[in-house]
Amino acid sequence: MSDVQEMTPYQMLGGEGVVRWLTDRFYDIMDSDPAAAPLRAMHPADLAGSRQKLFMFLSGWLGGPSLFVEAFGHPRLRMRHMPFAVDEAARDQWMSCMRQAVDELICEDWLKARLLAAFYDTADFMRNQ
Prior knowledge:
Layout: H1 3-6, H2 9-13, H3 16-32, H4 37-41, H5 48-61, H6 67-72, H7 77-81, H8 88-105, H9 109-125
Helix pairs in contact: 3-5, 3-8, 8-9
């Protein structure tokens, strides 16, 4: 087994700093892209808390420290997103922002594909409309 096969996505990306960059870039895109305006409207005016929670979640989700679970318990993603109308359009807007952030960050096509497939599965699972 190669070293890459034994690494978590968190490690493959480069750890905390890169996950933080990915999170911040995602929110910067969402905050500035007119196509993501309906998604942005679901968030508070100040994105600091959203940024921190997504960073904490992604840390554990990608195989790094379980920061979100340690602070808030089980993510219960669907339950936490129930107050919002998450339809295909919202999913696609979220994915568009994340795809752009991933494209800017990751050079390896195989890693991009792996991450984007996992992000899509999770984003699609959030749909409640």
